[in-house]
Amino acid sequence: MTRPRLLVLRALGLGDLLAGVPALRALRRAFPGHELILAAPAALAPVAEATEAVDRLLPASAPGRAVPERIEWTGPPPDLAVDLHGNGPPSHRLLQTLGPRRLWAFAHPGTPEIDGPPWWAEEHERDRWCRFLRYYGVPADPADLRLPAPPGPSPAPDAVVLHPGAGAPSRCWPVERYAAVARALRERGRRVVVTGGEGEEDLVARLAKAADLPDTDTFGGGLSFGRLSALVAGAHTVISGDTGIAHLAVAHGTPSVTLFGPVAPSRWGPPDDPRHRALWRPGPEEGDPHGRRPDPALRRITPDDVLHACEDLPS
Q: CA-based diameter of the chain, in Å?
């Protein structure tokens, strides 16, 4: 007999998927007999597998945070389609084209036929999707976000990992400040390594040169998820902006210092845990998350702020 199929749309990035782990696991527990299919970028297949909640990833993506034009669905319509992508209506309409028996989504005036919960713009991302599922009668715990330990060894055990990149320049702390942090940590006897995603080779090289790091301690161009996960899980500390690697540090319980701006940690920050520090220096201006320059809130964070936060982390 064919298993009923549950389709979840979350065609976003690494941090988005990790923030959605509590919701995915809640759905897995609520529908143990369903095949749970995640529509997300193909590169996130290893991450989906690591959640231990997803049976299969169906490749779906679009530039930026846009809704994909289509989902290459085959066979009978989904028994249940769940919109974990956004508040619609484009994502709602995309799922409606598949003709699911049931569709769960946030309420929106553009799709009045969907009787879902209200969207609260300032809600934390993990809390948002758990509240969403509770509306539909599915218990969900925002703290259920840890990933299992990676099977492979770390390429740099007990190193401090610096990750200067992010999805937009507005969320990138200046390279010279990362370099100042790297030099200070190395003077204290710490090994420092630098990571970067695809297309961030120049950024990694600039930081490595400014901090006089050896080639063995730079990982530009995008590590595989397995190696990145092992690096983060085995790190002494992860220092980054508000991007995917910060969520990966939380998922592995690795001490972290995350620099926020322009989006506040109340929306994307780590859980309340002494292992994680969120630095946030808001001002009167409202930042642009898609801006072309480092946000003023980020620029108010100094290297000394970061070093002091590292000192405050549990050893």
A: 64
Model pTM score = 0.96
Q: 5-135 and 160-312: same fold?
A: yes
**Mean pLDDT, the chain, integer:** 95
E strand or H helix that includes residue 24: helix 21-30
Take residue 112 and report the two structure tokens written for it: 């009045």
Kindly list the domain boundaries of the chain, sorted by start residue.
5-135, 160-312
d(CA 178, CA 83): 37
Instruction: Give the number of C-alpha atoms closer than 13 A to the C-alpha of residue 152, restricted to the C-beta side.
Output: 12
For residues 47 and 17, is the Cβ–Cβ distance under 8 A?
A: yes
Calpha distance 128→105 (Å, rounded): 12
Which CATH fold would you assign to the domain 5-135? Rossmann fold (3.40.50)
Token pair, residue 161, equals 């990992």
Neighbours of 267 (CB within 10 A): 16
Domain spanning 160-312: CATH 3.40.50.2000: yes
Q: Based on C-alpha coordinates, what's the Rg of the chain?
A: 20
CA 183-186-192 angle, 5° bins: 95
Each residue of 254-298: pLDDT tens digit? 999 999 999 999 999 999 999 999 999 998 887 888 888 999 999
* Displacement of CA 225 from its chain's centroid (Å): 13
The 10s digit of each residue's pLDDT in 124-154 is 999 999 999 999 999 999 999 999 999 999 9
Q: CA angle at residue 183 from 180 to 187, to 5 degrees?
A: 140
